[in-house]
Specification:
This protein is of the alpha+beta class. It contains eleven helices and six strands. The chain folds into two domains: about 110 residues, no CATH class; about 130 residues, no CATH class. Helix 1 packs antiparallel against helix 5, helix 5 crosses helix 10 and helix 6 packs across helix 7. The longest helix has about 40 residues.
Length: about 325
């Protein structure tokens, strides 16, 4: 079921990205290749930029009404679009403009920057009538970038997080091996068995309908003990075994009993004394103190378990939650 949900989310995301790209192409949203009239103001050191054949700083401005008509935007109040840029002459009458974006940059240009996948500057082509003086008016255009949303989904989404998942998994190997080794020592030394014996009086009170010597009681105690010590891998088969044994005591096979519901709540919200997996993830992510969460985890899981048990026991008293023959 979970795999089907993930597949649906991936297909939905891909379909939405493709829809946006097709819509942008059909409506010519970014006017790629079309020329926008702009004004240039040169700094004193950049007065001879076109002839110097070297990068020079200038100020770029666009009349707001021209900008709105060019991109088909609704009219709004405000001054000209003004950006700092770096001019790179290529040939007489042609050059490249590297536009530095800031808080005042129009949203449409910010979208083009994402499409170009260049985090430093927005690159555009500049054309003007060649002459002896640096241009004060020119035409600006952007090279076409197609299927930007689909590329962003693939590069920044799927492939990026696939790489993160691999790096995180490799980083977890050593830390999990350490903790699982310690837990295995605890199991071999009899610590889990001792913990199980200490839990038995409490379990008898929580599960009065389960005989104390029944295999279901032993499986549940071992499952809870493993969860207490953060042995998630060891706890899972014990939990399945406990449910299988509880079902043998069920007079209506396939219908969850009070004991099953109570055990499921405890198994889901079990108190954790050593959250080994979370500690390992924090350490792999570069946390300065990955074990600082132990106190908060013990408190949170204890409260969570108490509330869960109280809720399931309270609901068990209501006839509306009991299935009748």
């Amino acid at each position: 079921m979970l795999n089907a949900i993930w597949l649906f989310l991936i297909l939905a995301g891909t379909g939405f990205a493709l829809f946006r790209d097709v819509r942008d192409l059909a409506t010519d949203r970014f006017r790629f290749g079309q020329e926008l009239p702009v004004l240039l103001v040169w700094t004193p050191s950049g007065a001879g930029a076109p002839q110097a054949r070297r990068p020079q700083t200038c100020s770029l401005s666009v009349d707001p009404r021209v900008f709105q008509r060019f991109y088909g935007l609704a009219e709004r109040s405000g001054g000209s679009v003004r950006q700092t840029a770096e001019f790179l002459p290529l040939s007489p009458g042609k050059g490249t403009l590297r536009i530095r974006l800031d808080e005042q940059t129009p949203p449409r240009w910010k979208e083009i920057l994402k499409a170009q996948r260049n985090p430093e500057f927005l690159q555009a082509r500049l054309r003007w009538n060649p002459g002896p003086d640096p241009p004060t008016s020119a035409a600006l255009s952007f090279d076409p970038v197609r299927f930007s949303s689909l590329n962003a989904l693939t590069q920044d989404g799927i492939l990026h997080y696939a790489k993160v998942a691999v790096e995180l998994a490799l980083g977890l190997i050593g830390i999990l091996a350490l903790w699982l080794g310690l837990m295995k020592i605890a199991e071999q030394s009899g610590l889990i068995t001792a913990l199980s014996r200490s839990l038995k009086p409490l379990m008898i009170r929580l599960f009065p309908e389960v005989p104390p010597e029944h295999p279901a009681m032993g499986a549940m105690i071992m499952n809870i003990s493993a969860n207490l010590l953060g042995l998630g891998n060891a706890a899972t088969p014990l939990g399945l075994k406990a449910m299988e044994e509880l079902n043998k005591l069920n007079s209506r096979t396939g219908t969850a009993t009070d004991a099953m519901c109570t055990f499921l709540v405890i198994n889901t919200s079990n108190v954790q004394l050593i959250p080994a997996t979370v500690i390992a993830v924090r350490a792999a992510a570069g946390s300065a103190d990955p074990t600082e969460i132990i106190g908060a985890v013990i408190l949170a899981t204890t409260v969570n378990t108490i509330v869960g048990i109280a809720t399931v026991k309270w609901l068990a008293r209501w006839k509306v939650f009991r299935k009748t023959e």
